[in-house]
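Case study.
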Amino acid sequence: MFLKVRLPIMLTFFAGLIPIVAFFFVDGTPVVKKLSNSLEQDMVIVSGFALLLGVVNVVQGNVRKIEPREKGWFYAIVLLAGMAFMGLFGAAGAMRLFGLPGIGMMPDGRPTPFQWGSLYMFTPLQATMFALLAFYIASAAFRAFRIRNLEATILLVAAVFVMLGRIPIGEPLFGPITEWMMQVPNGAAQRGIIIGAALGAASLSLRVILGIERSYLGLDKNE
Amino acid sequence: MNGMELFGTWVAALLTLCLMSFLYKDNPLFRFAEALFAGVSLGYYIGITMDQTLRPNLFEPLRDSGITLETGHLLFAGLVGLNLYTRYIPKIAWFARSSLAIYVGYYVGINMVQKLQGEVLPQAAATMVDLTGGGSPTAALNALVVFIGVLTVLMYFFFSVEHKGLFGKASRVGIWFLMLGFGAAFGYTVMGRISLLIGRINFLVIQWVGGTLQALGIGG
Amino acid sequence: MSNLAKLTSIDRRWIFLLIGLGTLIPVLLPIGFPVRVTAPVKQIFDKIETFGPNDVIVLSYDYGPTTGAENDPMTDAILRHCFSHDIKVIALALYPLGGLTSLTASIDRIAAEYPNLQYGVDYVNLGYKDGGQATMKLLAEDFSGAFPNDTHGTPLSELPLMQRVKGARNAQLAISVATGIFGEWWANLINAQYGLPVAVGCTAVSAPKYYAYLEAGQMIGLIGGLKGASEYEQLVKDNYPATREAYANPMLQTASKGMDVQTIDHLIIIAFIVIGNIAYFADRRAKRA
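After joint prediction, the assembly is written out as follows.
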């Protein structure tokens, strides 16, 4: 019980307290500064490990698809092959194996396999996937943007003003009002959202640190 | 453009076209490129994390200095990180909770300070200003609009009170401000998405077609 | 259903085709619309203009290839400005999904335009680091706490520029060119806790939110989307004529050229919205009748 429940809650409390205490005392107290700096350095490393957790999840999910020849099994193989290509060459580069100097360029100016994959597979795939949204946003504007009531009208007018105010031929007429709109009423709306969301996030943080919120550990309130 | 670059550019162009083929309809070429996109992205994570973070911040200091007072905590960090993976071993999956607790604890701690000191206080301070605008009617109007906007948006998000009567009317004004913000966001989103499309069209026209023609000695 | 109402149910691929042509044609036949500079962009340019050769800016690549079409012209223009004005640059990446690729490609490409620059003295590429806020707090106080080496594996102690600047808080300005939340962290963590002036070049999608930070004085300026990037390009071209040659290269993707496309595509989309609404009202009137 202690190791499974109490210890994790206590660790959250202490780990959460350190950056808070450090914020108030960091410059005058070397011990706090040292502790805080060490924890920050540790978190850089732990974040690295945490980032790779997702990789394990995806591998598990896709391997499960391949064996029983589930729908889309071929694409699961493609996914794993793509991951293996980049991952293995990336790991080999990081460990300086097979004469690889890292994950960037070779000394003679040729790309390492990882760099080649980054430039010619990763980059175009990433960029194109999001570029497709340009077409869908145009289609959505055509079909869904309607002056149905006052709120929808404000939304539409603001959108059209921005679209005109941010292009060269509309700028002389709509530019100044767009800039005012962005800075003043939009700034106020965004500020309201920021303050509201920040207060919510801070209270959630406090609940986590105090052990009231435990769902992130897979525990319910009574455990 | 040398041969290797030209080959790479062709691979990139074909992958771009495979993804774009979805605009016509869903098809196996799109599915292939989509799966490759996910796989390559995950592999990219592995490469950069190992080369840019774990090697210089964990392995090299421990290899070069051994375990000393200065580097001892790095070993601890490595173990905490590795321990996260025990969640995949059912019998000892609960081990991972301790690592997760430290990881989540640190980030919620820093987040709390960041949100209160870095967002709530400066944003509130920028709202609570001289509403006379220091004699400038424009500044006064702007300050008033911001003040009313922030207040009414916050009222809209305050769900502990029923939105009716004067409070309801005020929160409706908050909705108008939000709609204006969302409309502006939509306008900007159009610009953003078009920008990304420009990037791909530029790539296809300039680097792929232009680069290939150049390599073949046709055109400038 | 009226003919106009029928129009709204056309196959969306016709819309896609129009947007595709609206993008392709101006790319092939550039128009060259003029660019007007707005205050939030000029504020960043003017701030850098006040710096001298011993001053240092931190340029954080907080984006990847996903939004490279928007963000690359920003970092390119900022680098050209700094290198033309003899400002030292410490570049790093905090965005995991391609930050390193964008950083390395950009800094190598622009530095090659300035043959007199010396790596390690005039600019440094620190590479990418995981850790988000933990990394940012470390590098604010001491770069070596987060980045023991630069991206080539050289210890920071061997790089003259890094001996002059212990942490980001000792630099004169930090510019985060960002997609998503990283730019906000520079404002609400680094500016808030260390007082370092911060500027952000963000994707258009997130620009509205950044106005709140800008207006609250948490940032000194804002480059919003491709429009902002084209403004910064214009400022660099106007003030540093030597850069015009680089920008005149037809093989170069610039934000200014992109604004031609934006103009055509925005007008197409506005036309869609107008037609859609006319059809909506025509249909509503027909139903009432």
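Observations recorded in class. The helical segments of chain B are 3-20, 28-65, 72-83, 96-127, 137-156, 165-215. DSSP finds six helices and no strands in chain B. We will return to this complex in the next lecture.
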